Amino acid sequence: MSHNAFLRIGPFSRASSLSVKALRAYHETGLLVPAEIDPQTGYRSYSVAQLTDATIIRRLRELDMPLEAIREVLDARDPAVTGKVLSEHGARLGERLAATQRAIDEVSLALESPAVHTPIHLRAEPSRTVLAVTQMVSEEEWMPFLARAVGALKEAAAAAGAVVDGPFGALYPTLLEDDAQEVAAYLPIATAVVLPVAARSSGVTVDVLPATDVAVLVHIGDYETMADSYTTLGAWVAANADASDEPVRECYLVGPRDSDDTARFRTEILWPVRAMGEPS
Questions:
Q1: Which residues of the chain have pLDDT under 70?
Q2: Contacts of 113 (CB under 8 A, 6+ apart)
Q3: Which residue, 71, 92, 170, is CA-closest to 130?
Q4: The whole model's pTM is what?
Q5: CA distance 209 to 91
Q6: Phi-psi region of 200 (alpha: psi -120 to 50; beta: other; left: phi over 0)
Q7: Bridge-partner residues for 270, per DSSP?
Q8: Which domains does the chain have, with CATH numbers?
């Protein structure tokens, strides 16, 4: 078989067991660039020889190897370099496995005795007037969105003469989506105000958070382990309350704008629940 033969992206995807989405992503990052791109149609074609690189990429990604490490292997095409990269990645996997086991142990303990391991309590949240900005956000866009939102909301509050009446926070839907979810960042204010045109043009609105009962847990530390706190709080709610369909609230008591030390971060997670006896 000639290694100069070409396969269009569809057949190459099937032959390499890499999805078309993955191939497009590897093209954009320069990891696996098509041998030919039709200037008229934009159709991508790959050489049969590129199946070797595709196989290397697929197998190393199955080991969860970062793309930059894979790029090092492909650029060097040297067994010694490949061995070195695999050894280093193996050490990192060992560290991650140990960290994962610690997290599993911590979550298991929290689920067995959440009130002791992680204090959780019920609280009645009053209705709050807020400045808000809403956007569809992917996981990668989450932190940049919050950073932009808190700046925009504080600027809008200052421009409108609003009195800030609580910590910056955000609302998250109870149902997670793979691609993106609607996040509403908010800043509580004492009373409703008329926003200047510039603030309205940037997407800031005046809104009201309804009064609700919530189960409260304070997550301590960086956001990488936030999912564990949600697991603990969700298990507590299942055992002690009745979860409502209202968005979950996060209040950033101490965050990146307040400290460079992630160990000092404090995030209050407020899970809306129905009052006891309230119909589902």
A1: 1-4, 100-101, 103-118, 177-178, 275-280
A2: none
A3: 170
A4: 0.63
A5: 47
A6: alpha
A7: 216, 249
A8: 6-62 (1.10.1660.10), 120-274 (3.20.80.10)
